[in-house]
């Protein structure tokens, strides 16, 4: 299967109202588990690398790994840069062969955010890459925080601004703020589904949920029904796999390093398969 970009996998998702999972990866076992889950369920999938994870593994190392898996896979796999904040990192991803990039300049005022994103879109579209932009503010962009929804100020994406942003930048997908947070929730999430719908009516393009961990299946389904087509999901899976691995090691004192490789792949696969089913992308490859 050839390497896919966001347009390849999200256009149909937008038309048929389902979401494609975008999973952060920093190691080969996790990446293999994710692709195996997508292949088993005949689902497209997005492997993504967050710029902040550069302290664990370099973008050069993951690029080769992701691209190899994508090209070997029986389903469409997008290799996407998550939260590209620095222009240098984004250009590195382009050069390394990523098929898609996110530009996160959402902390800037609208006009400056648009200008920064335009710069990347111009280059990326020439080369056949897709671009995700972000409007509105979600806390704990590094994914490490356990944030309380109530601590957030009213920083949800404004539908009128979203229309201007999409028209001016020509992004292929838009990450919006409507109540999700990065990392794990301290309080109960309070999502504004109407806001998703209002934004979708204005822009029409695929919308992206960041902070897709810790939500109920019903919250995912409602978000998708209102216009979400890409769900970034990582923290819950990371904890789930770690907990299962801990139990495995306690129960198997003879376990060898390669046993851990196999177990991690299986635990990741199980967790991701559940999410693919809920997101509705099974059978859509
Ligand atoms: Zn994010």
Describe this structure in words.
This protein has 285 residues and is of the alpha/beta class. It has one domain: TIM Barrel. It is 48% helix and 17% strand. The chain has helices at residues 6-16, 28-40, 59-72, 87-96, 110-126, 159-169, 193-203, 217-225, 235-251, 257-279, and strands spanning 3-4, 20-24, 45-50, 77-84, 100-103, 130-135, 146-147, 173-176, 184-185, 207-209, 228-233. The chain has an eight-stranded parallel β-barrel, surrounded by nine helices. Strands 7-9 form a two-stranded parallel ribbon. Helix 2 packs parallel to helix 3 and helix 9 (235-251) packs antiparallel against helix 10 (257-279). The relative contact order is 0.17. The structure holds zinc ion (ZN). Zinc ion (ZN) is lined by residues 83, 182, 210, 232. Zinc ion (ZN) binds at residues 83, 182, 210, 232.
What ligands are attached or bound here? zinc ion
- Which spans of ≥5 residues are poorly predicted at pLDDT below 50? 141-153
Portion of residues within helices: 40-55%
Strand order of the largest sheet: 2-3-4-5-6-8-10-11
Largest sheet: 8 strands, parallel, barrel
Gross CATH architecture: Alpha-Beta Barrel
Strand segment count: 11
Distance between the termini: 10 Å
CATH topology: TIM Barrel
How many separate domains make up the residues? 1
CATH class: Alpha Beta
User: What is the number of helical segments per DSSP (H or I, 4+ residues)?
Assistant: 10
Proportion of beta-strand residues: 15-25%
- The coarse silhouette is globular
Structural class: alpha/beta
Overall mean pLDDT? 92
CATH level-4 homologous superfamily: Aldolase class I
Q: What would you report as the Rg, rounded to the nearest angstrom?
A: 18 Å
* Topology as a string of helices (H) and strands (E): EHEHEHEHEHEEHEEHEHEHH
Pfam families: F_bP_aldolase
Protein name: Class II fructose-bisphosphate aldolase
Cofactor: Zn(2+)
InterPro entries: Class_II_FBP_aldolase, FBA_II
